[in-house]
Design brief:
By secondary structure, this protein is of the alpha+beta class. The chain folds into 2 domains: 2-80; 90-236, 2-Layer Sandwich (Alpha-Beta Plaits). It contains 6 helices and 13 strands. The strands form 4 sheets. Strands 5, 10, 11, 12 and 13 form a 5-stranded antiparallel beta sheet that branches. Helix 3 packs across helix 4 (136-149). The longest helix has 14 residues, at 136-149. It comes from Lujinxingia sediminis. This is Type I-E CRISPR-associated protein Cas6/Cse3/CasE.
């Protein structure tokens, strides 16, 4: 596996027609794919995350193949990614998630719901939203933690939480949230709309199962990985 840091040269990207309006648009998605698309039938074998806080956008990527800057639009730094993990190890983490849940509707069809909007609607329906002393981001943080750590019921079966399945335990009191954003764009080829929400979580975790957690680091966590969600970045707690 490889870990890469790719700084986008916006002028060079524009030169080859890969304009970037931001990390939430389809062009941004295509720009990341330009590092790995070596033939038309290639399937995604990487997870990534945009960082647009600085003037020059940065893409962080974990991939099975070494990325190739065929268009000359990146300052690209790649290294082997061989994390050494131990049971009980404490790590600081940062992850961008698409916090959704699938439920069956009245027609027994599975429907995807944004957990934050679901929670907000429930509070409003109970007539309690105006009296609650928290912000939407506070609610997003609480629901994001639940999304990571809560078990779920599907067809009468209790499923492990994402954290338990991924071999780690989250210290809830350490978790902070940023950038709850609703993202919408259209695919140029067919005009189909894509809408989803993202939430950035950061905090502290403990590794319970090194092999399972290694899978999270390599493959990401949760849905919408094709559009920059799921990459979990970690560092030792000092």
């Amino acid at each position: 596996m490889f870990f890469s840091r790719a700084v986008v040269d916006l002028r060079q990207a524009h030169r080859v027609g890969l304009s970037v309006a931001g990390d939430s648009d389809y062009q941004g998605h295509q720009l990341v794919w330009s590092l790995f698309r070596d033939h038309a039938e290639r399937e995604r074998d990487f997870v990534y995350r945009w960082d647009t806080a600085s003037q020059a956008p940065v893409i962080y990527v974990v991939s099975e193949r070494e990325p190739q800057d065929r268009e000359g639009v990146f300052e690209l730094l790649t290294k082997d990614f061989r994390p050494s993990l131990e049971k009980g190890q404490r790590l600081a983490f940062s992850v961008r998630i698409n916090p959704v849940v699938k439920r069956r509707d009245e027609n027994n069809k599975r429907v995807v719901h944004d957990v934050v909007m679901n929670a907000k609607k429930a509070i409003k329906d109970a007539g309690e939203w105006s009296s609650r002393e928290f912000t939407l981001l506070d609610l997003a943080r609480d629901e994001g933690i639940k999304w990571l750590t809560s078990t779920s019921e599907t067809d009468g079966k209790t499923l492990k939480s994402r954290a338990e399945k991924g071999g780690f335990e989250v210290k809830a009191s350490s978790v902070g949230a940023e950038n709850y954003v609703r993202r919408t764009f259209k695919k140029p080829r067919n005009g189909r709309g894509v809408t989803f929400a993202t939430l950035d979580l950061h905090g502290e975790l403990v590794v319970n199962d090194p092999e399972a957690f290694k899978h999270v680091l390599f493959e990401g966590i949760g849905p919408t990985k094709a559009y920059g969600c799921g990459l979990m970045m970690v560092r030792p707690v000092i």
